[in-house]
Amino acid sequence: MNCNETTKNYYRVDKLPHIWCPGCGHGTLMNAVVRAVEKLQLNKDDLVIVSGIGCSSRAPGYLDFNTLHTTHGRALAFATGIKLANPKLHVIVITGDGDSSAIGGNHLIHAARRNIDITTIVFNNNIYGMTGGQYSPTTPYGDFATTSAYGNIDKPFDLCSLAQGAGSTYVGRATAYHVTLMQRLIEKAIQNKGFSFVEGLSICPTYYGRKNKKGDAFEMHSFYKNNCVDIRVVEKTPEKGENKILIGEFHNDPKPEYTESYQVIIDKFQGMGGN
Amino acid sequence: MAYKLVQGNEACVEGALAAGMRFFAGYPITPSTEIAEISSQKLPQYGGKFIQMEDEIASMAAIIGASLAGVKSMTATSGPGFSLMQENLGYAAITETPCVLVNVQRGGPSTGLPTLPAQGDIMQAKWGTHGDHPTVALTPNSVQEVYEYTIKAFNIAEKFRTPVILLMDETVGHLREKMLIKDPSEIEIINRKKPTCKPEEYIAFKSDDSIPPMAAFGEGYRYHVTGLIHDETGFPTNNSQIADNLIRRLVGKVENNIDDFSYYEEYKLEDAEIVILAFGGVSRSAKSAVDKLRSKDLKVGLFRPITMWPFLEKQISNIAQKVEEIFVAEMNLGQYYLEVDRVAGKYCRVEKINKVNGELITPDEIISVIGGKYELQRNN
């Protein structure tokens, strides 16, 4: 998926090239976000992209929207303030595995619980890349990182299950290899009036891949190609899901949205009380 | 204009609404909770929004987000929550996002004395968030002043594009007094400067007077905001000259404009030889002590800083040059004393009167220290 002439319109081209390492999956995932926004023909002025800290969170700097690069883990809390202050804005949070589920885990579950209309996209590379390869809440059990020299004994989160359990009304997963699916999930996530969660499995050949002998970017993409199965396939033929990574749309169950519920209160009580 | 009997925390909400607050994010904590409760009740009546966040970190983040979307925003907390807010307080400072943070101080450290007053967060207000940064903190001492200075806190935040801390203490937050609610026409309201240029000409962090005009998200000025050191366009850089310029501009826009918001009270200072310096709840005891000590023929006066930060160096230096001794009375172990002594110590004696047991310093305690020392001197 290249940055063609029309998608270029959504980039701050003068800020490119990006800082991500050769082979990193984040650029592909970022472009899936742009493609989705283009497909939905969203007005650039009405879209806010909020991020936290980490490799993923550098994405907003390259995108020509209202962009906010916040503190580590807090993107969703900032985004909540933006959305509530001006519900007309489309708010997308781009975050990473550590940013969203370690330091920002509390904000994630509560934003999901409120069902506030924010689209959260996690670029999950299974590692803290920006700081040089420490294990994250999604580093698989037994894998190596600079802080798990003898193998990781933490159990990883299933981020989609976490988001769904916390109340997210739209949940899906794709990978940096499955870019058209990724784009489609993001489109539907943006269209969902409520809290939406899309996990994009990324690849980090530089740290996670190298530490765990996963090969180069081609091999890591090939792994996703050969080991991911769409949930619709598994629903029909469960045995096809054995030892595979599930991708696709997991949950789509619209519920009353937070800022709309708040507006009902305002409509009822505005002008009452006072001194 | 109308008089009401209200609590300090309630006055804070009244002042905030008068100043134009239309967003509040907070987390329950004693002794500031009433500010959240009353905000939750009143904001929808004004078309505004309230949200109870999952913690104080998120509360501070949410008010910054709302302010970037163009809405005047506030949060309120006490010691433990103030600690959690330090992270994003620094973010508000570096991104120049106007907002008001109310800290109704209680006894610390840690969970400390949740229901009892203290003034132990003076230095935290100044240095709690990491790195060099601008700090504005105001300390009212009456319910009326809570109302007035909450409005001023918003005005300073908007004018200088910086977070402002309203540093109350439990004594004032839970005090009930008569308060005059002003007619909106009598209240000065300052709103942030907006860009007048075309969006394509907007350079988000460039300014002629050190305070850049601020566009709200959604107004057509698409720009980038980051907590990283950034250039005038808002994008990150490691350029040492740009880093130096930015930090100096951020601190300078507040420090160099202190005359714009130097608030204080002088009481019987004209002929004073001895000065009590006190603020917040303690200043009410100090004022009473001044009168009683005067009746013992001691020439005592009161200097009460309302602007705690930046430090009122000029005023305190002037006083120090005219008097024999300054007693700094505060409900901590001498935090503000350090600053007063730094400035006044070369001209006069500076002494501490401190209390950290969760009780307000009483007039008698001040009288016994000052009266004891000076009456003894006179008798000798």
Fold and architecture overview:
The complex is a heterodimer of chains A (275) and B (380). Chain A has 11 helices and 10 strands. Chain A is an alpha/beta fold. Chain A has one domain: 3-Layer(aba) Sandwich (Rossmann fold). In chain A, helix 2 crosses helix 7 and helix 5 crosses helix 6. Chain B is an alpha/beta fold and 380 residues long. Chain B folds into 2 domains: 185 residues, Rossmann fold (3-Layer(aba) Sandwich), CATH 3.40.50.970; 115 residues, Rossmann fold, CATH 3.40.50.920. Chain B is 38% helix and 21% strand. In chain B, strands 2, 3, 4, 5, 6, 7, 8 and 14 form an 8-stranded mixed sheet that branches. A 5-stranded mixed sheet of chain B has the order 11-13-12-15-16, sandwiched between helices. In chain B, strands 1-9 form a two-stranded antiparallel ribbon. At the A-B interface, strand 2, helix 3, helix 5 and helix 11 of A face helix 3, helix 4 and strand 10 of B.
Number of helices of chain A: 11
Query: Which assembly state applies to the chains in this document?
Result: heterodimer
Named CATH topology of chain A:
Rossmann fold
CATH homologous superfamily classification of chain A: Thiamin diphosphate (ThDP)-binding fold, Pyr/PP domains
- Beta-strand content of chain A: 15-25%
Category from helices, strands and their pairing of chain A: alpha/beta
**Would you state the CATH class of chain A?**
Alpha Beta
Helix fraction of chain A by DSSP (H/I, runs of at least 4): 25-40%
Largest sheet of chain A: 8 strands, mixed
Shape of chain A: globular
CATH fold-level topology of the largest domain in chain B: Rossmann fold
Distance between the termini of chain B: 55 Å
| Low-pLDDT stretches of chain A | none
- The largest beta-sheet of chain A arranges its strands as 2-1-3-4-8-7-10-9
Alpha-beta classification of chain B: alpha/beta
Which pair has the most extensive contact? A-B, 44 and 50 residues
Kindly report how far apart the N and C termini of chain A lie.
Answer: 59 Å
